[in-house]
Design goal:
The protein has 122 residues and is mainly alpha-helical. The protein has one domain (2-115). Helix content is 76%, strand content 7%. It has 6 helices and 2 strands. A two-stranded antiparallel ribbon has the order 1-2. The chain is globular and about 45 Å long.
């Protein structure tokens, strides 16, 4: 149940990001399916890889006062977009690292707001 809530929140955040951020678009016949698939892959990557990357990048994150954490999020978003379109042929496409960086910030903000509204704990 916890994963389904995380997936729903991520889907909302990815949908808002596709709508707001230039350079992030959907790939596939149906935009809704593309957002759902992109959110699924992003949720899975965040569950599996994000804790490991946060631990490995902890020294540089401390040195940069947390700014490097944004880079990790942007790289994970790029990886999720690549994996979703490569595996499922549907998902999101990101034009460049700048769009991924802005998109990861928007996804983080929207996810925090949605988790606060529905009361989901991480």
């Amino acid at each position: 149940m916890k994963f389904l809530i995380r997936w729903l929140v991520t889907a909302i955040a990815v949908g808002v990001t596709v709508w707001i951020v230039p350079g992030i678009t959907t790939v596939g016949n149906d935009a809704t399916i593309a957002i759902i698939v992109g959110a699924l892959v992003l949720s899975l990557i965040n569950m599996v890889l994000k804790p490991v990357l946060q631990l490995l990048s902890l020294p540089i994150t401390v040195i940069t006062l947390g700014i490097f954490y944004l880079i990790v999020n942007a790289l994970l978003l790029e990886l999720a977009a690549w994996a979703a379109t490569g595996i499922f042929g549907s998902g999101i496409a990101i034009d460049g690292f700048g769009s991924a960086l802005i998109g990861s910030i928007v996804i983080s903000i929207i996810s925090a707001i949605a988790n606060g509204i529905i009361g989901a704990e991480d």
